[in-house]
Design brief:
Layout: H1 2-55, H2 68-80, E1 84-90, E2 96-101, E3 107-108, H3 118-123, E4 128-130, E5 134-136, E6 140-148, E7 156-162, H4 167-171, E8 180-184, E9 190-192, H5 196-201, H6 208-219, E10 225-228, E11 234-242, E12 247-254, H7 255-258, H8 260-306, H9 321-352, H10 355-364, E13 373-385, H11 387-393, H12 396-416, E14 420-425, E15 428-433, H13 442-464, E16 467-484, E17 487-493, H14 495-506, E18 512-514, H15 516-521, E19 526-534, E20 543-552
Parallel strand pairs: 16-18
Antiparallel strand pairs: 1-2, 1-7, 2-3, 4-6, 5-6, 6-7, 8-9, 8-12, 10-11, 11-12, 13-15, 13-16, 14-15, 16-17, 18-20, 19-20
Helix pairs in contact: 1-8, 8-9, 9-10, 12-13
Length: 554
């Protein structure tokens, strides 16, 4: 109960925090980006407006004498554009024709050569030229703007602009309650800031956090980032470029304010979590007290069943899940009793039948598969060479030890190939393939099995001077169980059994002899060596015999 309440609440708090933060971050990124682009557009309009005003001063060609009309146009420009501190009009060859200023003396037809002035050179390749930001007396930011007329004869206007007036644009930008904007030039010097004292001091060390903030935005591909401003508070910032002057407008908002709505939501959710957890804890305590008795009864019953007392039953009548659980345990005990009886049955069957046959009978729950039937099988016989002499000279313990190891090795190979070991007889054995469990390509499988039998017993036999021969034959046989009520064997009867037995008796050490039917079944896949036909006991004519060589194809 406690987990059912607390875990979903924790998941809700976590998901709400993550998704809320993600959504708020996306909204703030869009908002700050829009504010930055808007501020950049306003500053660009401010600069373009100055350029447009300068264009009116270069409309008419210059004459040789002083031009009073141009002087009046220059004074009108200073009156209409407060940001322009001084204006220099230059003719087509770069000679100063007029200079007016708010701070210095005006002059007419000064004749100074401005052909090498960067503003005059730059404006020849562009209708309007913006110079770099400079700080007069290390304080106020200035910029040079030059405008060329639509033909060379009208000359060029070069104006010195005081950038302090951009403060009006920057100070008007507010994001939330305390969010603000600032402008950096390409080297990272502060051009405009709501706190104009930062601009006038021109202290690059003091404004280094703003430069770092811009570098972080650039590193993130223009996405909003968090960082610290000059006051040391953590802010979320976005940026927009003013491409014509290569300035950056950065808009920032304190993180505490930006994510304030999310934090408030999380506090409310945390309060709900604490309340829900307290209620869940009370319910959990009450349920625990109510459940102790049934749990102990179940624990005792399960311990008894686990100890093997499958006849034990848990008597619990609570009318709830505990009673149903007790019923399931009782059903499980019954099933375990049946399973135990089945295991004991298999063990009893394996005492009288081959393991594969016993498991087949148990799996099908029908011993009808053991009834006699006619089917094509492969019969494999194998026995030791020289065992009679060995058993006559060796101690009984040694003889029985060799036979035990011999039987274990062969039984493992037979099981690996899914064959049926019908019986061991002394040092001999009989194996069936394709009965009672059918298999594909039984002849090839039998040859592979015979080769693995040789490999399994080779080291054992060499130590005692013994050999091992195998004979196999393929054909129809009657297979089924034979015996009395106290002893049953699953075996095969037919001439194919006799033929396999005779081939085994005729095989030399490490030799696998097969009949013509099996040889035909594996033709082309096993290298066979045809031997001379042999007269075998129980057969009235010579029997074709083949030997499987060491090279067996897959």
């Amino acid at each position: 109960m406690f987990a059912a309440v607390v875990v979903p609440l924790l998941a809700a708090v976590g998901s709400e925090a993550w998704f809320g933060h993600h959504d708020q971050r996306a909204r703030l990124n869009d908002l700050l980006d829009a504010e930055a682009r808007s501020a950049a557009a306003k500053i660009q309009d401010f600069l373009d407006g100055i350029g447009d005003q300068l264009t009116w001063t270069v409309q008419l060609p210059w004459s040789e004498s002083a031009d009073e009309r141009r002087r009046l146009d220059a004074f009108r420009l200073l009156r209409q554009v407060p940001a322009v501190v001084s204006l220099t009009l230059v003719d087509a060859v770069g000679r100063e024709r007029l200079f007016v200023s708010r701070l210095g003396l005006n002059r007419s037809e000064g004749g100074a050569d401005h052909s090498a002035n960067p503003a005059v050179i730059g404006v020849k390749s562009s209708p309007i030229w913006f110079g770099p930001v400079t700080f007069h007396a290390g304080s106020e930011p200035f910029m040079t703007i030059a405008v060329a007329g639509n033909r060379a004869a009208v000359g060029i206007a070069v104006a010195e602009v005081n950038l302090k007036l951009i403060w009006d644009v920057i100070s008007a930008i507010r994001v939330g309650r305390t969010g603000e904007a600032f402008v950096l030039d390409q080297p990272g010097r502060l051009v405009a800031h709501p706190d104009i004292s930062l601009v006038l001091r021109a202290d690059e060390t003091a404004t280094l956090p703003l430069k770092t903030l811009r570098a972080g935005i650039v590193a993130q591909g223009g996405r909003a980032v968090t960082g610290r401003d000059v006051a040391g508070q953590t802010v979320l910032a976005a940026m927009a470029q003013i491409p014509r002057v290569d300035w950056s407008v950065v808009v920032k908002q304190p993180v505490v304010e930006a994510f304030g709505p999310i934090y408030a939501t999380l506090w409310r959710t945390a309060a709900s979590l604490i309340g829900g957890a307290a209620l869940a804890a009370a319910l959990a305590y009450w349920l625990t007290r109510r459940m102790i008795g049934p749990i102990r009864l179940l624990e005792d019953g399960v311990a008894r069943i686990g100890a093997g007392h499958f006849n034990h039953r848990i008597d619990l009548a609570t009318g709830d899940e505990f009673e149903r659980l007790a019923t399931r345990f009782n059903e499980m005990a019954g099933e375990l009793a049946v399973s135990q009886e089945r295991s004991e049955r298999i063990i009893r069957l394996k005492r009288f039948l081959a393991p594969q046959v016993a498991e087949l009978v148990d799996r099908t729950s029908d011993d009808g598969v053991l009834d006699g039937r006619r089917i094509e099988v492969v019969v494999v016989f194998g026995d030791l060479r020289g065992f009679t002499a060995f058993s006559g000279r060796a101690e009984p313990e040694a003889v029985m030890g060799v036979l035990s190891d011999y039987y274990d090795a062969l039984d493992k190979v037979v099981s690996d190939y899914g064959a049926t070991l019908t019986h061991f007889s002394g040092d001999g054995m009989m194996v069936l393939l394709n009965a009672p469990v059918t298999c594909s390509d039984p002849a090839l499988r039998a040859i592979h099995m015979a080769r693995d039998m040789h490999a399994s017993v080779q080291a054992l036999l060499l130590d005692h001077g013994l050999g091992f021969g195998v004979g196999l034959a393929m054909g129809p046989a009657t297979v089924g169980r034979i015996g009395s009520g106290g002893r049953l064997d699953y075996t095969a009867i037919g001439s194919v059994v006799n033929l396999a037995s005779r081939l085994c008796a005729s095989a030399a050490d490490a030799e696998i002899l097969i009949d013509a039917v099996a040889a035909s079944a594996v033709s082309g896949r096993v290298r066979l060596v045809e031997r001379a036909a042999r007269m075998l006991k129980g057969f009235d004519r010579p029997v074709p015999v083949f030997a499987a060589s060491d090279d067996v194809s897959e």
